[in-house]
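Working notes for the structural subgroup meeting. M.R. asked for a predicted model of this chain before we commit to crystallization trials. I am recording the input and output together here so anyone reviewing the notebook later can reproduce the run.

Input as submitted:
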Amino acid sequence: MAKVSKPFTVGEYAEQYTTAQSPLLAALSRETHLKTARGIMLSGHMQGAFLQMFCHALKPRRVLEIGTFTGYSALCMAQGLAPDGLLHTIDIDEELHDIAAKYWAEAGVGGKIVQHTGDAAEVVQGINEIFDLVFIDADKVGYENYYNLVFDKVAPGGFILADNVLYDGEVVLPAEAQSKNAKAIHQFNEMVKADSRVEHMLLGLRDGIMMVRKK
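Returned structure, recorded in token form:
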């Protein structure tokens, strides 16, 4: 009897029909999983491809990222910056900076990325820029605060993207079954839904991306 191959999941199928990771991004992914215990936090192939494609379309001059980790998402977004573009990224964990900086330099985008270290809520207030795009991918309980802090720094017509807004499906569970982070994410989604200053779409890619366009 012929062996029946295991069918693809929808996610695996989508990945088969998405431009493959570059060798550099694949190497960054491998090093992240080898040297950190939080490899699941990496944006990864599909989300990275989306961020890169989105930035190629938008051609932002100024981008803010809250949550650098090992620099995968920053590298993807930097590939699509305008020629004079600059990406500011913030993370509280200084120990991971060397990994990120190494891959940014190898990709030739190191000069377009400014790494900030510290509490994002404090650092954001000290960055005097107007952003075309903000990507939030940090502590989930802080999402509402980050959104409110950056909103006036986003240009009209600019975008805020927030990651993990499905929180592994927990957001659809009854409140009593949700973790602290899932409750915070659901509250954030409700806040965006009620914000008349924006248009928004929850994109079911990977763990969910909330796409917000400032009117």
